[in-house]
Write a structure and sequence with these properties.
The structure holds 2 protein chains of 2 kinds.
Chain A (H helix, E strand, L loop, with lengths): L4 H4 L5 E4 L2 E5 L5 E5 H7 L15 E5 L7 E7 L5 E10 L4 E10 L7 E10 L4 E9 L5 E10 L4 E10 L3 E10 L4 E11 L2 E10 L5 E11 L3 E10 L4 E10 L5 E10 L5 E10 L2 H8 L5 H14 L1
Parallel strand pairs in A: 1-5, 4-6, 5-7, 6-8, 7-9, 8-10, 9-11, 10-12, 11-13, 12-14, 13-15, 14-16, 15-17, 16-18, 17-19
Antiparallel strand pairs in A: 1-2, 3-4
Chain B lengths: L1 E12 L2 E12 L3 E5 L6 H9 L5 E9 L2 E2 L5 H7 L1 E4 L11 H8 L11 H4 L9 H14 L4 E5 L7 H16 L3 E6 L5 H4 L3 E6 L2 E6 L2 H10 L12
Parallel strand pairs in B: 3-8, 3-9, 6-7, 7-8
Antiparallel strand pairs in B: 1-2, 1-4, 4-5, 9-10
The chains are: A mainly beta, B alpha/beta.
Chain lengths: 306, 233
Amino acid sequence: MPSANIVKKCSPDFLLIDNEVKSINKSDEVLILSSVDAWSSLDWTKKYFDGKPKGGYFIWVKKQIDFPLSTCVNIAGMNIKQDLQNLMVIERGIKAKANVVCSSLKANLFGVHKARGKLILKEGASLEYNHVHKWGSNDNVIPDYEFILGKGSSLDYNYLNMFSPKDLNIKNKIICGEDSSVNLSIAVNGIDSNIKIKEEVLLQGKGSQAISRLKLVGRKNANIVAESSIIATEKSKGHIDCQSLMIDDKSKISSIPLLICENKEAQITHEASIGKVSEEQLNYLRARGLNEKQAIDLIISGFLKA
Amino acid sequence: MKLLEVKNLIVETNGKMILDEVDLKIEKGEVLALLGPNASGKSTFAKSIMGLPEYKIKSGEIYFKGKDIKKLALEKRVKEGMALVFQNPPALPGIKLEKLLDLISDKRGEYEKNHINLLERDVNVNFSGGEKKISELIQVLALNPSLLILDEIDSGLDMRKRGEVVDIIKEKVKEGMSILIITHQGEILEQINPNRVGVMINGKIICESTNYKKVLKIIKENDYAKCKHCKKM
């Protein structure tokens, strides 16, 4: 699970504030452009974009790198609307790590962050993608990502949202090719938010594997609907684990794991639970001098990061 | 000067009476050992005076530093200077010991320097018995309490870890910290030399003595029940 400290230590390879690209780092191994420039200068990228992009990043990892990539997309002004398309391509056999931060720099900016993303992992590529969101309580956030995993590739996708916006609508679609594997981890601290999560893993390649872990916290009138599905059409393995914590009676969590199997050789399973904060843990932390709110915050943070 | 004074304490949990009119005092700088078989009420006593909510005080008084703390919340009792080493502390997945220490105290104890590996791990997750006890001691000593309550600190320890734990306790005794040691084994007392010992059976203190060696001898030779003959020795 990514650390929320990534937000504080952000000195990124790509920095976008509001709708202006502030900086792009250059290296021999990786080509980083704004999506707008990629569209106009690299014809082959057009098939991955959904029409001409208005903003966002293009990252093409062409050679092996020994440093983590980082991007920061921030909202700093009032009533900013971002409509981004992000494209990341990891070439054959390359192992890469990316720390990706999207955030509002202040609490009440009433921003809109719409981000469509496509991540292409070519044959044998491997990517650890740590995605941290930190939003103000009046933002509207709509990330819609598609991951295409080539033969033998592997993806670790870790999404952490400790500060949820007013509306959060997450869509993730992961298309798994032959012998590819994916570990998905999505953790959302829902505070007074309307949250919709729709995650779909397509096990389309023979021997592909997926584990999807969803951790949700509902507090202060949060309304969370999380659908997590695995669809297996080839001999493959998949597991969904949805765990949720309810902090108060004013919140609502709907956790919906879905398994669709179209191949008798496929093994797909799920488990789901919704519970409350453990009294034993709570009292233990109070016995260390933390008040109830501090103890609950710490337990939630541990739950989402574990 | 009395640090803790408990009078006629009756405690219930899940509708069942566990402590039956318990009287106990701990002086400032005193080390008191509370002995007793399993399920005699020793841990209930520790948790009741700490203020854990599942233990309902039906009647009686608890004074700490002369102040009635019966209605004081658990965390406020910690601020007043009480700290408890749990016999079976819960696992806290995702919470590093170092993070917890940062939250509970500005002042970091010296013991954690020898256990850097523990600091980087999630509290009590896959800890051995000895690691749990060390983690507990690191936490409570970071709180710098006036009264340290050790609930079965000697259980589940190998010789080396027991030696380490005993050394830490002895150092705190030397510094004048008041300590309540709860144990059903008693061996640790030979290394700590408590000022007084009490024996609890069926939720009652049946024996109090300043001669812990005599009490231990009676217990070893006979049984806890025989201690009633040495009441107020």
